[in-house]
């Protein structure tokens, strides 16, 4: 079952959105983990860079169209996961999704607060590997800037925030139970950066992916518990005030021995140069 991660993220969410118009042929129900993903509600002002990706056309209005997370790294630049923008998710190339929006400054998805900003351009990392999940990031350009105060700096390679043991906060509107209880209000969970070999052992290569220390980051708690889950994908993992990870994948949510895997932001920063330099103006689907 290749690509189970992208499926795991969006299909259950689409199922949860009763108004979803897509026929979910072959959709599997969310993994029924018994573990509660130990987060807590926060106000978006506590992590103002956290945005929701929304398409009401695709996911219906019951959760304002939310289907993934994202993070503002510049006033008009939002990072998210590549697997959030797959054809299986959006039904076509990302730039063809007419109502793809970023919702910023909103804690309660249904409150109407904050801003809904249309996406001008969506670029999926051309190096994304859906088998291992390596390079799971995409770059969205917004039609209107977010306030500077809503932007989080990216941690570069060698930043001490990547050191195992560092406490980090992951935020999103994803599943709170591992069983399909998607949050209406923004939640966060406190996790620790874990040593690469913890994830290398947990994920040597299997149906869900393979841990690649150069482009991924391991986070969670050895005992299980607090973790990101379906619907949080693309959202931020922040430590010491800097962005270190994007929610990417894992086996279930909050399970002991199965930490969360994040896209390593230092690898994104590195790729971004090549990306905008090499691909700017290209209309090729990636
Ligand atoms: C997902 O399917 C997903 N527990 C995201 C994060 C994690 C697992 C799955 C980490 O999008």
TrEMBL record:
GO molecular function: serine-type endopeptidase activity
InterPro entries reported in the protein's UniProt record: Peptidase_S1, Peptidase_S1_PA, Peptidase_S1_PA_chymotrypsin, Peptidase_S1A, Trypsin_dom, TRYPSIN_HIS, TRYPSIN_SER
Protein's UniProt keywords contain Signal: yes
Signal sequence segment: 1-27
Domain Peptidase S1: from-to ranges: 36-275
GO terms classed as biological process: proteolysis
Record keywords, A-Z: Disulfide bond, Hydrolase, Protease, Serine protease, Signal
Keyword flag S-adenosyl-L-methionine: no
Protein name, entry field: Serine protease
One Pfam family linked to the record: Trypsin
Family per similarity comment: Belongs to the peptidase S1 family.
Organism: Streptomyces monashensis
UniProt xrefs under SMART domains: Tryp_SPc
């Amino acid at each position: 079952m290749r690509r189970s991660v992208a499926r795991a993220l969006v299909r259950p969410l689409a199922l949860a959105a009763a108004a979803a118009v897509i026929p979910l042929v072959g959709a599997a129900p969310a993994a029924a983990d018994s573990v509660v993903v130990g987060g807590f509600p926060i106000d978006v002002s506590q992590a103002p860079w956290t945005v929701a990706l929304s398409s009401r056309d695709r996911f219906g209005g019951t959760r304002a169209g939310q289907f993934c997370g994202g993070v503002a790294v510049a006033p008009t630049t939002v990072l998210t996961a590549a697997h959030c923008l797959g054809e299986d998710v959006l039904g076509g190339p990302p730039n063809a999704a007419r109502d793809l929006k970023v919702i910023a400054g909103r804690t309660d998805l249904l409150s109407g607060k904050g801003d809904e900003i249309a996406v001008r351009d969506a670029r999926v990392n051309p190096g994304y590997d859906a088998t291992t999940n390596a390079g799971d990031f995409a770059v969205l350009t917004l039609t209107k800037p977010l306030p500077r105060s809503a932007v989080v700096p990216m941690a570069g390679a060698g930043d001490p925030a990547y050191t195992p043991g560092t406490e980090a906060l992951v935020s999103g509107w994803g599943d709170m139970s591992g069983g399909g209880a998607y949050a209406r209000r923004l939640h966060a969970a406190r996790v620790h950066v874990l040593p690469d070999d913890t994830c290398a052992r947990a994920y040597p290569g299997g149906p869900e992916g393979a841990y690649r220390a150069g482009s991924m980051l391991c986070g969670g708690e050895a005992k299980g518990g607090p973790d990101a889950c379906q619907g949080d994908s693309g959202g931020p993992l922040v430590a010491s005030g800097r962005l270190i990870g994007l929610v990417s994948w894992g086996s279930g949510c909050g399970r002991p021995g199965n930490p969360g895997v994040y896209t390593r932001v230092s690898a994104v920063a590195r790729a971004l140069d090549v990306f905008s330099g090499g691909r700017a103006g290209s209309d090729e689907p990636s």
